[in-house]
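Re-running the complex after MR caught last week's input typo. The corrected sequence lines follow. Everything else is unchanged.
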Amino acid sequence: MTADPRARSYLELTARQRLAGILDPGSFTEFLPPPDRVVSPHLPALDLPVAFDDGIVVGTGRLDGRPVLIAAQEGGFMGGAVGEVHGAKLTGLLERALDEQAREDGARGVVLLLETGGVRLQEANAGLVAMGEVQQALLDLRLAGVPVVVAIGGANGCYGGLSIICRSADALVMSEAGRLSISGPEVIETACGAEEFDARDRALVWRTMGGKHRRLLGDCDALVADDPAAFRAAILHHLAQPRPLDLATLEAEHAMLRDRIAAFGDCADATEVWGRLGVDDPGRVPDLDEKAFDDLVTRLGV
Amino acid sequence: MTSSPASVSDPALSRPGDLPSEPARVLSALFGADWEVAVQGRFLRGEGRADGETVAVLGTCGHAAIGADLALALAGGVLSILRHHPGRPILLLVDNSGQKLSRRDELLGNNSYLAHLAKCLAVARARGHRTLALVYSEAVSGGFLATGMSAGPCYALPGVELRVMGLEAMSKVTLIPLDRLSALCRTMPTLAPGVENFVRMGVIREIWNDPADGLRQALAAPPEAPDRQRRLGLARGGRPAAAEVAERVRRAPGG
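Corrected-run output:
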């Protein structure tokens, strides 16, 4: 174990360690910190333990001197699953960014370090409804021109409602080990059988849902090394490049998504998608190191 | 019947085709005889008139699983309304069995398609369109988020199915025995499937026993404050914490 979170695998860090590793040293102030004991009102009825932060840390800090509002989900508590309090903390943070935008000059920017399996089933309805509120708050921020950057690189990936919501952010930064999909492999296998998706086939899971595929498809804007410094640099870069959300950008996105189905809708595997994108040896993509993958992305122009 | 997939450049409405009986009944309850909606697969698109005002209608039927193609068709419908009928209210008719569970759709990035639909509806509101959703048959989990909640405020007809997950599956995942889970459901609105529990969460504003009247009132209502839903959830006893927690984060000292 190295004491400095900046020198460690992002994947292995806790939510608080990620914040320490990404923000300017000593700049973080937490809202509703653990001593406030803001816990789930539902888990005790199920005889389940609560967390004093309900599995998400929200607050404010600085990135290269620039003030940001930031959230980090804790994969170590129920896999980062979203319950009533967890979701409300995220919604409150996004709404606070809108409040600040209305008061101050210049957008502050929001950073979301996501790691989640989706709705917390033990408080399913409140969790799902919270997703809708998080989505609405994030879209309101986009419409107001406040940049939102999402990072995904935790062991639990980013699944469920937040996999949808995060694609409404300005930019998405992932590590290769990060995974992004609505339904988890086990859910698809349980519902549709192992012929549809063999959840034990880890290579298949990463080919279909992992950072490299999402980067090659264009759903992720930067694939970074599994370390906090790399995430920090990419987040900073994208915070400075907000994207407008309007009819023209949506019509362009619509054409891109329509073309994607036309180009890849009949592909059975990610390797076929990569081959059609122009990758010479698609079977080798999972083995490419960072530099080789960067060169590939540059060559393909994706 | 429309003969080609809805696209941004294709605003043409066709005559109603062989619309399934369930959405046809709902449309008649909403608009009397004054509607024209076509079906293509499980995608609904058309318009109706309420009190002389034309309402754009989009939706799904047949407990559709919301995959990339269907989400793209819905989004294309929204964009077409923005281009060709500025300001027209949009009613989304919700019937789905959830997000599509398939390797192909995840490979294509179904999350990006569902997000695209949500963004289209948000930009519609920003451009002055009223948007609202009516769950008329069934809505499940990510399918409810991507359609109903994206188009909110959300209403429902009596007796519809609304859930995150069925109790048997929930029992397997949470390792809470089914009989205990069923007992807990009687006292925990956040746990149990059922539209009445989503009314208590605040997300279903009202159940429309008289759909035509409900639609008229919803169209005439002023825009909602962003925190209305969680305040309803608190007032109706479904979500004891969300309203207060969100406000505390908004107002916490710091920064």
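None of the earlier attempt is carried over here. Chain B touches chain A through 81 residues (CB under 8 Å). Chain B is about 45% helix and 20% strand.
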